[in-house]
Design brief:
With 501 residues, the protein is an alpha/beta fold. The protein contains 17 helices and 13 strands. The strands form 3 sheets. Strands 3-9-8-7-6-4-5 form a 7-stranded mixed β-sheet, with helices on both faces. Helix 2 runs parallel beside helix 4 and helix 7 crosses helix 12. The protein is globular and about 85 Å long. The structure holds pyridoxal-5'-phosphate (PLP).
């Protein structure tokens, strides 16, 4: 047996490379990432790369018994991942909801992966849990939550929402037999993670009321009040008002203060989905919009969106912390965890007691490190800048002939469409989007307002500045002109056909 152990050990030790080998790998990776970041600033790089291969080279590089050299892996990565599809860290990326990915977070991830602390439990890694809790306390303070809150750093907004809605459910001791009497109030602009979270926590049968939005695309509070009253009369249980502070489609913020009043009056759990827009509270341009969030029962905010942290970091906060704890409490911990759950080991709450997760990535460090290294000031400026860039773009485009714009941006989303075209407007705008994406220097997306197709930008990468906005305005105008010209030189009957591509 001993000789077999020795033999296995020799090969097993390949998993623990020597310092020379580590340094070579680290150097290669750093060199590669530096090249990537440097090209981001040049005209060569694109925010969107459409490829024919769609990364299919990866399929031919199988995972085998034998090792593959680092340089091959980096080449595969560059070709199939980096230069294929959207480039989230690019200043020209204005599609969907992007963040960029602050560099210090990557160093934090490196450290946290090398050290690999068990951030699930205070007993096992008091320091890492304190960092997680410091980050949560800072978030709570930003939003005016009291010290009695509890929170958790999650993988993202969708996971956060599951925790928040489960806490809402358990806080009222709602039983499965009553699920079909519980009512959840959303709007047409609520994110679909609400729906998914309800399904995940087993509440598929809840009654879902989609409250209309007013002319400012905010939850219509009069309709909400009326609907709640009718539901109570009908013997239903108003359960959760799902408000949004920064809708994904338009960036509109629901009237939180008024809805907090209604929620209190009728004893409904008020949840705020601030996943996209939450950290705009740090900018004086937007602080006032969030008034009333401190009166909510829970909210979600994604550091991996408006705090520019790389993907994989959301946060959920519940105002009465005991409710989140109750929702995730166990009758008894596993036998193998007995020591970790001893009372004297609970100076600080452990993340695993406030979530469905146990072993987890040490997410706190990737938020804590940039906040500490930079200080909060540049975050405030970057967020204020993004709002003003949205307004700048809005103003410039509304001065341009032929464009119709959506609502004036409260946060950093602008929607627009070209309407002076001698053909079907939707078809024209879809083609315009395609042309812009083919160019790839700026990436954008589309949405619909009341069924009408609009192009949409969301300015949220910390690398987006005036230069990118001016480039986008130029690209839009050049492409519209080109398309109009192409149509006008064709006989009428072919125009429609051309625009269809
Ligand atoms: C992005 C987003 C979500 C979902 O968050 P993920 O982190 O992508 O899971 C929820 N709500 C809003 C308003 C969002 O913009």
């Amino acid at each position: 047996m001993l000789s077999k152990i020795h033999k296995l050990e020799t090969v097993a030790k390949e998993l623990d490379p020597c310092v020379e080998k580590r340094q070579i790998w680290a150097k290669q990776v750093i060199k590669h990432s530096e090249e990537f970041m440097e090209t981001l600033n040049t005209d060569k790089s694109k925010a969107f790369n459409k490829t024919e291969h769609n990364g299919n080279q990866l399929l031919y590089s199988l995972i085998k018994e034998e090792p593959t050299p680092m340089e091959n892996l980096l080449e595969l990565f560059r070709h199939n991942v980096e230069r294929n599809g959207l480039v989230e860290s690019h200043g020209g990326h204005m599609a969907y909801v992007n963040s960029g990915g602050l560099y210090p977070s990557s160093l934090a991830d490196y450290l946290s992966d090398v050290v690999n602390p068990y951030s699930a439990m205070f007993h096992d890694s008091p320091g890492s849990v304190r960092i997680e809790n410091m980050v949560l306390k800072w978030i709570a303070a930003c939003f005016g939550y009291p010290d009695s809150f509890a929170g958790n750093l999650t993988s993202g907004g969708s996971a956060s929402t599951v925790l928040a809605l489960a806490a809402a459910r358990d806080s009222r001791n709602i039983k499965a037999r009553d699920f079909n009497k519980c009512v959840v109030y959303t709007t047409t602009l609520s994110h679909y993670c609400a729906e998914k979270a309800l399904n995940t926590i087993g509440m598929r049968e809840v009654v879902r009321r989609t409250i209309a939005v007013d002319s400012n695309y905010k939850m219509d509070v009069d309709i909400l009040r009326e609907t709640v009253k009718k539901d109570i009369e009908a013997g239903l249980i108003p359960f959760v008002v799902y408000t949004t502070a920064g809708t994904t489609d338009l960036g509109s913020v629901d009237p939180l203060e008024t809805i907090a009043g209604i929620s209190r009056e009728f004893n409904i759990w008020m949840h705020v989905d601030a996943c996209y827009g939450g950290f705009f509270i740090l900018s004086e341009e937007a602080t006032h919009l969030f008034k009333g969030i401190e009166k909510s029962d829970s909210f979600c905010v994604d550091p991996h969106k408006s705090l520019f942290i790389p993907y994989g970091c959301g946060a959920v906060l519940v105002k009465e912390g005991s409710k989140l704890a109750y929702s995730n409490a166990l009758n008894r911990p596993a036998f193998y965890l007995e020591d970790s759950f001893k009372d004297e080991c609970q100076d600080e709450p452990s993340p695993c007691n406030l979530s469905f997760e146990l072993s987890r990535h040490f997410r706190g460090l990737r938020v804590w490190m940039p906040l500490k290294l930079f200080g909060i000031r540049p975050f405030r400026s970057a967020l204020g800048e993004k709002i003003l860039l949205a307004r700048y773009f809005y103003d410039r485009l509304s001065e341009t002939d032929g464009f119709q714009l959506g609502p004036y941006p409260e946060l950093s989303v602008v929607v627009f469409r070209f309407i002076k075209c001698p053909c079907d407007t939707e078809t024209f705008n879809k083609e315009l989007l395609e042309q812009l994406m083919k160019d790839g220097r700026i990436a954008l997306a589309s949405t619909r307002i009341n069924g009408v197709y609009y192009l949409r930008i969301c300015i949220l990468c910390f690398r987006t500045h005036l230069k990118e906005m001016d480039l986008l305005i130029k690209l839009i105008s050049v492409n519209v002109k080109k398309m109009l010209k192409a149509i006008s030189v064709k006989p009428w009957e072919q125009q429609e056909q051309y625009v269809r591509g």
